[in-house]
Structures are given as structure tokens and as C-alpha cells.
Amino acid sequence: MNESEWMTSTDPLAMLRLYTSDEMPWKHGVVAPLVSDRRLRLFACACVRHLLPNITKYERNIIEVAEGQADGEKEDKDLYAAYRLERQWNTPPSNIKHSVIMHRATANHTWSGEFISQQTLEQALYMESGSGPVLADTMREIIGNPYRPVSLYVSGNGSMEVSTDPSGDGPWWTLTPTVISLAQAAYDLREVVKCEFCKGRGKFQTSGSYSECPKCAGVDGVGTGFITTGKLDPTRLAILADALEETGCMDEKLLRHLRRPTFCVWCKNTGKISMPVRMGGPYEGPKPMYVMQPPEFTTEIPCSCGGHYGPHYRGCWVLDLLLGKS
Questions:
Q1: In sequence order, what DSSP letters do the residues of 197-230 get, joined into one string?
Q2: Could you give the 3-state DSSP secondary structure of residue 297?
Q3: pLDDT in tens for each of the 326 residues of the chain?
Q4: Which 3 state secondary structure label does DSSP give 285?
Q5: What does residue 83 show for φ and ψ, rounded to 5 degrees?
């Protein structure tokens, strides 16, 4: 798999096997660091968030704890406590496939990130066979381009100027505290949407009384009227891109990735547009009483977005680059 195939591939399992292989740096003539265990665990959590958007509050808590565990903020005992809480209050899962992928993506540190991500990805493709293009884009969102890795190089004059140019010629720009705080806020805070079940009120009326909304309520049982999707907020990422430009950053890779739209209305993030094609030309001869219309077929043409539109998840390679995460 070369660089062009990597950037346009719709097979995330082949991409994962390529990048986690020990032979990759010298087999393909590319010197790239192997993906870290943290990013592989975050990729597994992103797969679950994509396939199971309507999970319960206790299952959302498990995914958040698993992401914190990947970042070193949580321990195995916190994950066990989240599972105990889910089993205490939640009903048995109606779909065994959902339970399987949840347990595979949130395994403890006994298992490696490579094993967890591969098992989660195989289960995700088994559950939804058409999710390959979206999950492949999610992998590019977290891992990036291994054939053109981007790094920050600090200037040697003692200032806070950095550059993505390995030659040292610049352009140089300053990694200000404002940029760091905006990047940290974009990493910590998630996209919030209004709860459609209670219409943003946090409560709903049943039998003349008001009860807390079960959809948007937290683990404490209090309805908020809003649901955290688990995706990064695209508005905060766009503000971060503007702040980088003000500091003098001219790297199009960073700015384009932060400002990338999250959804393509034309191809629905598939990268292809289906169009009807009528076989044959118009009928020119004498018109009989019954004229058989020529059959119609559909053909697929590539979309201008390339299928690279999609949500941002924790583990975004640009945010990791700015925050110094591996």
C-alpha cells in the first residue's frame, strides 16, 4: 500500500494491519514511528461512538472512562466501577453484538492496544459492513499520514517559535499560551446536541407529573436537556485554526484538517455519488400506442470531497501534535 492508496483506501482493517506491522518502515521505504498504544485504544473507542450513537448514559460513562484510561487519567479500577454501575442499573442488552463491541473496545491494560483495535474493528465491520469508508477516515483522523508525518521543530534561538519544516528554513510561528489553551479545550470538551426526547427541557411529563429525562440524564440521574455525542466540537477546532493563523502558522495540512467539514451533503461521507443513467437515446421513429421506456441504471462517480469528510474524535493527530501527545 503506497501513499495514494492509504489516503483513498476504504478498507480500515488493511490500513491497521499495515501501520501496526513491524516491517512497515523498511518494507515500504518509509521511516515512520509505529502508532502508539494510546491512539489505538482511542481509535477503538471512536469506532464504538460511530456505530452506537444512541447508547445509554451508563454505556457513555464506560466509553469516557476507557478514553481517560488511554490518556492515563483513569485506572482499571475506574473501568471496573463503571461496568458495575452499568450492570446494576441498566437492563440486559437487547443486542448481543453491541455488548460484544463495547467489551472489546474498553478492555483493560492486560490487552495491547493493537489487539483491542483489531478486535473492535473486525466486530464493527461485521455489525455494519458499509461502515468501512467512515472507519477508514476515522483512522486517518487519528493516525494521520504515515508517509508524510508532521512534527514540530523548535527553533534554537531560545524562543517559543516552532515550525513543521524539517529543513529549518521556516516559516516559524509562536506556540502561544492561547493556542495551547484552545487546543486543550478542544480536546477536553465534546460536541453537545439538544436532546430530542425531552426537547432540551431535561424533563418530560408522564401521568400529570414531571420526571427526569432518561436519555440526557447523567449518571446522577439529573436530566440536562443536552447529550454529549463524544465527538470533538468543530466550532472549537475552527477557532483554533484561526488562532494558529494569527500566530503566523501557514501549514495547510494543519489548518485544512482543523477546518474540515464533518459531513458532505452530496455523498453522505461515502466519497461516491449515485446518479441514474438512462440507456439509449430518445425515440425518433413513429410513436406507437405503447412505447417501452429504456431502462435506467445507476452509476457511481467520485465526490469532490474524496470521502474525507467526517467527525473529529479524541486522538486527532493535529491536537496531539499541538499538545505534545503521542
A1: TTTTSSEEEETTEEEE-TTTB-TTS-B-SEEEEE
A2: strand
A3: 777 888 888 888 888 887 666 555 434 444 445 678 888 888 888 888 888 777 777 788 888 888 888 888 888 888 888 888 877 766 555 466 667 777 778 877 778 778 888 888 888 888 887 788 888 888 888 888 877 888 888 876 666 788 888 777 778 888 888 989 999 999 888 887 787 777 777 787 766 677 777 777 766 667 777 777 888 888 899 999 999 988 888 888 888 888 887 766 666 666 677 766 554 445 455 555 444 444 455 677 777 665 566 788 888 888 988 888 88
A4: coil
A5: -70, -40
Say which residue the cell 483489531 belongs to: 118
**Joined grid coordinates for residue 147:** 508517509
Alpha-carbon distance 143 to 141, whole Å? 6
pTM: 0.78
133 with 10: CB under 8 angstroms?
A: yes
Query: What's the CA gap between 134 and 137, in Å, rounded?
Result: 5
Q: How far is CA 49 from CA 56, 69, 128, 307, 312, in A?
A: 12, 16, 13, 19, 11
Number of other residues whose CB lies within 10 A of the CB of residue 301: 10
151-158 long-range contacts, Cβ below 8 Å, gap at least 24? Answer: 151/321, 152/321, 152/322
Distance separating alpha carbons of residues 145 and 114, to the nearest angstrom: 18
Long-range Cβ contacts of 122-130 (<8 Å, 24+ apart): 122/13, 123/97, 124/47, 124/48, 124/50, 124/51, 125/12, 125/13, 126/97, 127/51, 127/97, 127/98, 127/101, 128/51
Q: In this structure, are strands 209-212 and 173-174 parallel, antiparallel, or unpaired? A: unpaired
